[in-house]
Description:
By secondary structure, this protein is an all-alpha fold. It has a single domain (2-206), classed as Methane Monooxygenase Hydroxylase, Chain G, domain 1 (Up-down Bundle). It is 81% helix and 0% strand.
Amino acid sequence: MWLKRLFAGSREREVIKLFKEHLNSVKLSCEAFAKAIETDDKTLLNEVCELEKAGDAIRREIALKLYEGAFLPVMRGTLYKLAETVDEILDTLEDVAIDYVRLVSLDSDVRELCVKVANLNIKMSVNLMEAFEALGGKADPSDKTIKIRVREREVDAIKHEIYRKLIKKEVSNFWEGKILSDFIDNLVKVSDIIEDAADLIQILNVSLR
């Protein structure tokens, strides 16, 4: 297990456990959203909102443990920033879920591309968990963070393809178009924030050398 070898205190162990719960919440949220959009079952989006609420509580608990003195001072800022970034992923997933509920319609070809993005987000969330687990151990988290960057580029390519299709789409009013645009923007933003979290894990990895 990663920092246990270097920081055996109870606060450190508690923070590690909380981070794992936080990152698992991201994976579960990505999975729930992907299933909801693939099946067009909007009831599944309730889980995304519940996970966001739970994530807020986890972030606050991590902050409390860090302010109580968990880990060396040089690491606390980056750890707290990581917790904030993970929480931002959950916030954005909730925004995507709300946008999806508000959508008037989603063309089948665009839905297919959005499902691809949602499934890539799942894979990236798993890579993020694996990168965190690798911190301070024999495995190099860089292997996992590289996969995250590659998949983020895939999402960017799909995003451009979605936009090319949406440019040709007619909408009945401004708000219908805005909600659709917000939905796509937030969906692809998830991968961007996961990549930001991966960068912070790389910073932590350097600090442990």
